[in-house]
Amino acid sequence: MGEQHREISVAEFFEKNRHLLGFNNPQKAIITCVKEAVDNSLDACEQERILPEIHVSIDDAGGDNLRFQIKDNAVGIDRDVIPNIFGKLLYGSKFHKLQQSRGQQGIGISASGLYAQLTTGNPVKIYSKKKGQEDTNMFKVRIDTQNNEPEIIEDRVVDDYDFQHGTSIEMEIEGRYTTGHHSVRNYLKHTAIMNPYSRIVLNEPDGNTIEFPRVSQTLPPIPKEIKPHPHGVELGVLMRMLKNSSSRTVSSFLQSEFTRVGRTSADKIVEKAGLSGKERPLSLEKSDIEDLLEAMQNTSLQNPPTNCLSPIGEDLMEEGLRKELNPDFVASVTRKPSVYRGNPYQIEAAIAYGGDIDEDGRYEALRFANKVPLLYKRSSCATTEAIKQTDWSRYGLSQSGNIPKGPVVILVHMASVWVPFTSEGKEAIAQYPEIIKEMKLAVQKVGRKMKRYLSKKRKEKVLKKKRKKLSAYGTAMAPALEKLTNVEEDIIRKELMETLKKEYGKEAGINGGDS
Amino acid sequence: MGEQHREISVAEFFEKNRHLLGFNNPQKAIITCVKEAVDNSLDACEQERILPEIHVSIDDAGGDNLRFQIKDNAVGIDRDVIPNIFGKLLYGSKFHKLQQSRGQQGIGISASGLYAQLTTGNPVKIYSKKKGQEDTNMFKVRIDTQNNEPEIIEDRVVDDYDFQHGTSIEMEIEGRYTTGHHSVRNYLKHTAIMNPYSRIVLNEPDGNTIEFPRVSQTLPPIPKEIKPHPHGVELGVLMRMLKNSSSRTVSSFLQSEFTRVGRTSADKIVEKAGLSGKERPLSLEKSDIEDLLEAMQNTSLQNPPTNCLSPIGEDLMEEGLRKELNPDFVASVTRKPSVYRGNPYQIEAAIAYGGDIDEDGRYEALRFANKVPLLYKRSSCATTEAIKQTDWSRYGLSQSGNIPKGPVVILVHMASVWVPFTSEGKEAIAQYPEIIKEMKLAVQKVGRKMKRYLSKKRKEKVLKKKRKKLSAYGTAMAPALEKLTNVEEDIIRKELMETLKKEYGKEAGINGGDS
Asked: How many CB atoms lie within 10 A of CB B113?
């Protein structure tokens, strides 16, 4: 048996399991590729305080293939890391950081390259020009899947590339360009709603150009990188942190490696753990570490800082929905930050009703994780679960089963230093109960606002009907009353109108106004 | 930016994403651990033609922790691969082979170890005794997650371990032992249905012992390992195969590296590709390779051989269902093998109705992939989709929405050299349209059999009612007829009974028999 055993490279693994990365079929493949590249561009721009400007061009490349190019105005990529970024899976700068970003796993863009070479045999072509430098680096990179290492096909410096600074990626893949819900266009539209400080231009294969203009000139603040919170760490991780620590004492280890642990909290924790705090981190026995962990988890500490999060905010959410959907009513909420497994996160929700929104059938969901639209796996997503667990009839909507119906769009956004996706393809948010609960509170909040709007609307409708009735009644009664009272018909009509006005607030007239 | 970039080990990746491996929560964690170990044991026994005998023991280990041991009677594991098997993710003997087996990714059991050390800090303990050897090797292994390499904590030879031969694994994890649908007990019960040649004993934490006895003494034939089929290969893979080939010519490359390609087919393919066949594999240009691939895909070839598949078979499926469910009616079907993306696969289905099966509510599904029960992610599974796309009212069941209702259990099994799971946790089968179609044909076949049974049952019921009515009628009429005809009442009654018998087949008597 022994001789048959061998290591499996992570690239081989995902080549065979490419559906896990979002490459299930040609239609989804092109969306996934665009998504991974756009996510990286937006992350890079925000990090460097540049208002993003992204051009996406997609062309037919013959047969079942598409060629695409994605070009940004970020600060470019260091020459020495380019091959690894595009030619090695599980490589990147975001995985080991606790900071909100669109990418987090170091798989996305290299997986696109893997899919490209699998289906068309072609390498990825990268142009990148660092800000302040003259030269543009051009690479053609493949992945040596058996070793998960980049294979550099070409590497040269060009001086005629049309760039101020930034990165441009070109690939050829087996893909199918479609419109509709599952489409590049829809993905970019949703991206524009959530990233209103970006300008995105899409050239479609048929020559059509769509621009999603910048509607805000303000970049959100850079989310801060944070350290782990003592309440969210697991035993195995704590053991590794102690082993790798360069701190001289357990007390200084706690203060330097965790957030929200100062001198006083560190003292409390070590005391609870039956330690002095002066022990060297490496000297702790397993039972000491277990005690330490228990003490960490049972010492009350401030919640993690939330400047590591970058929600979109109520105003921008509403502005985005108004711009794209032209609804009659919009409401939004940004909840306070919360924590799951030690990871800070924040839920936002918005609701749009009426106007240009389609009347027929079920609601439309706009799902986002760290500002990235989620188009697939709706039924496995925590957002969907939160919406389904909400009784929408209480908020004035009709329901079929537990699905709200009507001209309504419900937006849910999770911002976090670590979004728990249900697969490497990052298509749906895993159903942690605490996350679903936060999402429910958010959608219920906007639901209540919508209810007020709908009740008011309904009341106005009833009122209008009543007014119309009374006004008709008055018209018929006035001549009869004239005879009875000898008061002139016109005066009676005027009196009746005044009464109606008092009763029903608005301008109301017999036979007049708003019938 | 550059200095922050680094490689991410696959162990780090899955430590942070442990929900992808089936370690979402303590209840699921213990099921996943048992599943991975039992899968390996069954694979090893079958491969070595040993009737499996597996003992699973689970104990409380204080706090939220469980300790478990799983011991098999397979042939043991080579000493030099033990550390890698348990201490390195993506390592194994099954990934690179096209052969039906329960494990396929080289992640399962090492992932359990990863979860164990993350939650309890403890290493995995392994005892393994090779068949025909005296000594038992004992290892304690941890995973160095930053490098995805095993760390050997202890390594010694013991001579007092209670073994003929086989492997025993011990771990301590954060886990919660439950009963019900999502439970170790249910997982083993379903395993017993699908692997009736195994004996499995479960010791539960409360001291309870459950035995799933062996009901068949016949091991299924070993599924053969096959080579890839030319119709299922992708360009990138073909390029790599050509690059790594030791064949001297393209023609011999085709014949030696693929299944169903003999001399004649190879000639046809190279001719279609505009090649002579005498080219050296490494010498082909990319355009040649594209032509070659197109020719491979457009040359009609025999389907892949199917001795790489090991279905359970109709008799054993029915026997398993009868034993565990005691139903009134069982039907089953093993479909002919089919192919998706070049991978041979085979669908089996069975249906059980009535008897001890619960009347209330929706049907129960028994889902299997390569004989392994799938307990989670039902709604994302191809099996569920196939059942939902079937109109069960045509087969005599009532439906709520598209969900069949009644005292009915529907079993679907996919056997394949490569089951496309929706996640590394191997919990659901991805919804490839061709696979769903095969599954539908299978469940519809057993549906039709059930329909015949249910119609017959319904007819018998109607008949019974009629007979009862006529018999009562006869009883009342006989005295009147006696007066009219002067024939004795007893004779009239007897005549009537004879008539009923002729009309309605069965023993029928006036006032008699089966009222």
From this structure: 29
pLDDT at B511 over 60: no
Nearest one of B491, B155, B461, B190 to B325, comparing CA atoms: B190
Contact assessment for residue B337 and residue B353, using Cβ atoms and an 8 Å cutoff: no
B49: pLDDT strictly greater than 90: yes
pLDDT digits (tens, 9 = 90+) for B2-37: 347 889 999 999 998 898 898 988 999 999 999 999
Angle, CA B176 vertex, CA B171 and CA B180 arms, to 5°: 120
Q: Do B91 and A146 touch (CB under 8 A)?
A: no
DSSP secondary-structure letter at A98? B
Helix (H, G, I), strand (E, B) or coil at A108: helix
**Average pLDDT over chain A, rounded to whole?**
90
pLDDT at B506: 54
* A-contacting residues in B 115-134 (Cβ below 8 Å): 117-121
For the cut 80, the answer to whether the pLDDT of residue B505 exceeds it is no
pLDDT, average across residues B341-365: 90
Nearest by CB to residue A235, choosing from B118, B235, B290, is: B118
Q: What is the CATH number of domain A10-212?
A: 3.30.565.10
Closest CA to B246 of B257, B238, B258, B262: B257
- Rounded Cα distance between B362 and B118, Å, is 39
Residues 6+ apart with CB under 8 A from B285: none
- When scoring A4, A15, A17 by the number of chain B Cβ atoms within 10 A, the one with the most, hence best to mutate, is A17
Q: In chain B, which among 383-412 make CB contacts under 8 A with chain A?
A: 401
Angle at B436 between CA B434 and CA B438, to 5 degrees: 70
Helices (H), B74-127: 82-87, 108-120
Contact B32/B425 with Cβ under 8 angstroms? yes
Q: How far is CA B403 from CA A232, B348, B384, B407, in A?
A: 41, 20, 9, 13
Range scoring the smallest mean pLDDT among A56-65, B325-334, B416-425, B439-448: B416-425
Interface ipTM: 0.86
Q: How many CB pairs under 8 A join A and B?
A: 152
pLDDT score recorded for residue B512: 40
Residues in Cβ contact with B224 at an 8 Å cutoff, skipping those fewer than 6 apart: B99, B305, B307, B308
- The structural architecture, per CATH, of the domain B230-298 is Orthogonal Bundle (1.10)
Q: Do B422 and A418 touch (CB under 8 A)?
A: no
Instruction: Name which of B172, B234, B237 to mutate to probe chain A: the one with the most chain A Cβ atoms within 10 A of its Cβ.
Output: B234
Q: Measured between CB atoms, which of A5, A106, A379 is closest to B8?
A: A106
Cβ of residue B63 closer than 8 Å to a chain A Cβ: no
Question: A333-346: string of b/e by CB count within 10 Å (b at 16+)?
Answer: bbbebbbbebbbbb
pLDDT confidence of A182, banded at 50, 70, 90?
A: very high
| Architecture field, domain A314-454 | 2-Layer Sandwich (3.30)
Cα separations in angstroms, A227 against A46, A241, B25, B281: 21, 12, 24, 53
* Pairing outcome for strands B199-203 and B53-60: parallel
Q: Read off the tokens for B493.
A: 């009654």
Say whether B5 and A92 touch across the interface (CB within 8 A): yes
Per DSSP, the three-state class of A128 is strand
Q: Please answer whether residues B128 and B137 qualify as being in contact, where contact means their C-beta atoms are separated by less than 8 angstroms.
A: yes
Do the Cβ atoms of A24 and B430 come within 8 Å?
A: yes
Count CA atoms within 13 Å of residue A435 on its CB side. Answer: 27
Predicted pLDDT of residue B402: 84
Element (H, E) at B188: helix B184-194
Best probe of the A interface among B3, B6, B376, by most A CBs < 10 A, is B6
